[in-house]
Amino acid sequence: MVMRGIRGAVMATANETEAIATATKALLQEIILVNPTLATADIASVFFTVTDDLNASYPALAARELGWHDVPLLCAREIPVPGSMPMCIRVLIHWNTPLPQNDVQHVYLGETARLRPDLPRANGAWAGEA
Description:
The protein is α/β, with parallel strands linked by helices. The protein contains 2 helices and 5 strands; from the N terminus they run βαβαβββ.
């Protein structure tokens, strides 16, 4: 088995604990939906980043609330590039899987689809968006 990366992003609607949790859960649930063989037992680690305007909570807390108790989780700040997308939560999941990398589905919800328009899962709105 090899390790593959799953990428994704979502925008929080506000710098509030609930908004960060809601957005993070929506992103992780969609990643699980489109990668049906993904099991937390096969996740080596998860790395979240948030933009500077999101500091009310850690995205990792939302993953714990989804039951990801044995998965190593880490949060950090995204590089503050001028003009970059605000209120953005990004994730990189390190997944032990026999799937080839081109069978792994990445998920960019709502406005974050602009970050990766080349990906098929970078196309949809989610319920948390206004």
